[in-house]
From TrEMBL:
Membrane topology: Multi-pass membrane protein
Family: Belongs to the major facilitator superfamily. Proton-dependent oligopeptide transporter (POT/PTR) (TC 2.A.17) family.
GO cellular component: plasma membrane
One MF annotation (Gene Ontology) recorded for this entry: peptide transmembrane transporter activity
Top-rank lineage group of the source organism: Bacteria
A biological process term (GO) from this entry: oligopeptide transport
Lineage of the organism: Bacteria, Pseudomonadati, Pseudomonadota, Alphaproteobacteria, Sphingomonadales
Name assigned to this protein: Peptide MFS transporter
Length: 507
């Protein structure tokens, strides 16, 4: 049977109305997020309790790391568009990520800032950063390639995919947090590496489920020899290894790196605007401007949302009554609460969007973004109110659950909807670049999150004045901006030209 015939047969096989490839990507991304969120849950404590960094420095390093894991997808998206294809990019990215996690476990060393072990830690972070650049944007592109642009299953598919992300996000902090805080840091980081290996095995084993999607655009060119004597493909892998060394050299200059990131983000947007204005027709140009509007909201949302792993993590450790059923729950385990809510609510949101779509009542993507910003701001205000009610006592844990609940609802209005919109609004030869820019904007948001965390101060348990003041201000700011986005959302929706997508697909 010819390959095209085999793909046609496989394409007819669905689970719960979706291609089986969606569930392969679901589980592969689940294990990658297990490794990422498992590490993230204990990273701020590893910096402050193992390396003994002050909070100002720890927040800065945390923000630099979480920024870089979202900036490198711009390069990874470009390389996949031009040379590797998304599937190979995802595979090599997973290898670099697994190596990085195991390196952290191996280079733990004694407590304190011993240069040997600290540089080993930086090198491991650099490997994870490069690997995420290859994997993060391109696995979302693979999801988009399984569906036609006018397929109404796209938003529900990305919600299902997002639930897989958060299954990993739920399990990672529980497993790695318990092992890291109770058994030893190397156990926690080692478990994160095992999770990434599990995702790689599944991705290779079930490759046929992808129906040939995500292959290199020019396989012959990829095998051609370069000046290095290696094939073009292996030259890219060598350059990635050199990129690890380069990031290792610069990661210690976290603050300068963050501002350079903001400059790079601005230049990338300028490049996309230049290509949009100079090469695209009116309809595609309008869609790209709509995509850029949504991308512009990304730094604000993630700057607020990503307090989770930094200032909110420290606040939970020091200022929240964590005693439940006679056990003081380690603070890192609360990093799984958001993902638990995602798992519970994502199917409901997927059903809700489908239900509203059939009745022509579904909010547009820009309107969902506005709703998400309002909910994000409300979460901070609820926590501020709970801490104020507690007075001199520790904040009741119920208010931590409430901020996670509201932020989860905000995330479901924002992130899966944004991923779907990027693949729908982009032209085919820019989809990897645009998806990478989406994650680049998230990188800027993570650096901004580090600056916000530093503004919250570093008081001991019970000293919550400064952090609550910051949370109150950013909460109200998010609500106001969300309201403005809701007001302009009808105009942005018109720029998307959704009514023409079906006819274009048929053509």
């Amino acid at each position: 049977m010819a390959i095209s015939d085999m793909n046609a047969v496989e394409a007819g096989k669905t689970w719960l109305g979706h291609p089986r490839g969606l569930y392969l990507l679901f589980f592969a991304e689940m294990w990658e997020r297990f490794s990422y969120y498992g590490m993230r849950a204990i990273l701020i404590f590893y910096l402050t309790k193992h390396f003994l960094f002050g909070e100002d420095k720890a927040y800065l390093l945390y923000g630099a790391y979480t920024s870089l894991v979202y900036i490198t997808p711009v390069i990874g998206g470009y390389l996949a568009d031009r040379f590797l294809g998304p599937r190979k990019a995802v595979l090599v990215g997973g290898v670099f990520i697994a190596i990085g996690h195991f390196l952290i476990a191996i280079t733990e060393g004694p407590g304190g800032q011993d240069p040997l072990f600290l540089n080993g830690f930086y090198f491991a972070l650099a490997s994870i950063i490069v690997g995420t650049g290859f994997l993060k944007a391109n696995i979302s592109v693979l999801v988009g390639e399984l569906y036609a642009r006018d397929d109404h299953r796209r938003d529900p598919a990305f919600s299902i995919f997002y639930m897989g992300i958060n299954m990993g996000g739920m399990l990672g902090p529980i497993v790695c947090g318990l092992l890291g805080e109770l058994w030893g840091w190397s156990w926690g980081f080692g478990a994160a590496g095992v999770g990434m290996l599990a995702g790689l095995v599944m991705f290779v084993w079930l490759k046929p489920w992808l129906l040939g999607k995500g292959e290199p655009p020019a396989p012959q060119q990829l095998r051609a020899r370069t000046a290095t004597g290696l094939s073009q493909e292996w030259t890219i892998y060598l350059a990635a290894a050199l990129g690890v060394a380069a990031i290792w050299l610069v990661i210690r200059y976290a603050e300068l790196l963050g501002y350079a990131l903001l400059g790079f983000a601005a230049l990338t947007v300028v490049y996309i605007v230049w290509r949009t204005v100079g090469t695209l027709g009116r309809i595609d140009r309008d869609r790209m401007f709509a995509a850029l509007f949504l991308i512009a909201l990304n730094p604000l949302f993630w700057g607020l949302f990503e307090q989770t792993g930094s200032s909110l993590n420290i606040f939970t450790d020091r200022n929240v009554d964590r005693a439940m059923l006679g056990w003081e729950v380690p603070a890192s385990l609360f990093q799984s609460v958001n993902s638990v809510f995602i798992i519970l609510l994502a199917p409901l949101f997927a059903v809700l969007w489908t239900f509203l779509d059939k009745r022509r009542l579904e909010p547009s993507s820009p309107a969902k973004f506005g709703i998400g910003l309002v909910l994000c701001g409300a979460g901070f205000l609820v926590l501020v109110a709970g801490a104020a009610m507690a007075g001199e006592n520790l904040t009741p844990v119920i208010f931590v659950f409430l901020i996670y609940l509201l932020h989860t609802m905000a995330e479901l209005c924002f992130s899966p909807v944004g991923l779907s919109a990027m693949t729908r609004l982009s032209v085919s030869n820019m989809v990897g670049l645009v998806m990478g820019t989406w994650f680049l904007a998230m990188a800027a948001g993570n650096f901004i999150a580090g600056l916000i965390a530093r503004a919250t101060g570093s008081g001991e348990a019970g000293d919550v004045t400064q952090v609550l003041d910051v949370y109150s201000r950013i909460g109200w700011f998010a609500i106001v901006v969300g309201g403005l986005v809701l007001l302009v959302s009808p105009y942005i929706k018109r720029l998307m030209h959704l009514d023409l997508i079906g006819a274009e697909e048929k053509a």
